[in-house]
């Protein structure tokens, strides 16, 4: 019977990693070609648009001075404060709060296993060192060199572990769903608002 020794296994593994096929691989594996927008300019308002449908952006609905009801996708409208968001690094830059520009007081997008809704976050603009109740992990395929935006970002709830998604153009509520790197409706571009 043939027995594999630890030395043989080590040599075989070393040869496979030295293979030109491994060194020249293409595509976007989970751990390659990603960035986290930790240096994002938090003084700028952004729109969060679908990477698969760039004309569709997040919009806070039912906006009041201190709240909004939920988030859905709508056609991008220049100057609409309900479509503008700031991205605030929190928890020492390990995660991010997404703050609506619609209400006059800081209100963050929040997800608890369903449609995104609001969460009052009055200290988020002045306290970047601590964790927030409504926070997200953001990983992107590219981050702007000037720290004003990012492309093809997957946004995952730090509390729920699910990713922000929508079903399709007919069912456009922005909600949390199981994360998938092959689901185009889970990728977002963070673009400076016009």
TrEMBL record:
Keyword annotations of the record: Signal
Domain of life: Eukaryota
Record keyword Translocase present: no
This protein's name: Ricin B lectin domain-containing protein
Signal peptide limits: 1-18
CDD domains cross-referenced by the UniProt entry: beta-trefoil_Ricin-like
